[in-house]
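Listing S7. Sequence submitted for prediction.
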Amino acid sequence: MATQEELDNISKVLTKARIATLTTVASDGALHSRPLALQEREFDGDLWFFTPKPTEKTDEIAQNPNVNVAVHGGDGYLSIAGTASIVVDEAKIDELWGPSAEAWFEKGREDPRIALVKVSADSAEYWVNNDPKIVTLFKVAKATTQKKSPDVGENEAVEL
């Protein structure tokens, strides 16, 4: 299980991110990646996204719920593997609803196609850099002259 520090690093990347890339698996095994707006940024093990239904994305999730979510936020990157489901929960939709969701549904909040993609995380890998940019640039330059890889952050793979 992830430590509190690892969960904090995951949250750090998520709080600075607005968009994630959701990758689903098609029936022929092909991977399909799509940008989606993150709806909650405080990480509790689940990620939420609005989607209309039915779509190719919702069909792929119904056939194979194994997904990956890639995120870049601030000075960090995050890859979350998990299980997706399509959720139509009016209370959760109301909780997450906002102007960014409104733009994607012709009838606004009353659109009958509104659904949520819920991704329950199984594992994550993150890369975070807590150094100021100038320090990072210095480390890269120094490593280049020494023919070494620079130490510019923390990389961890964690089970959730």
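Caption to Listing S7: primary sequence and predicted structure tokens for the chain studied. The longest helix spans residues 133-146. The longest strand covers residues 114-128.
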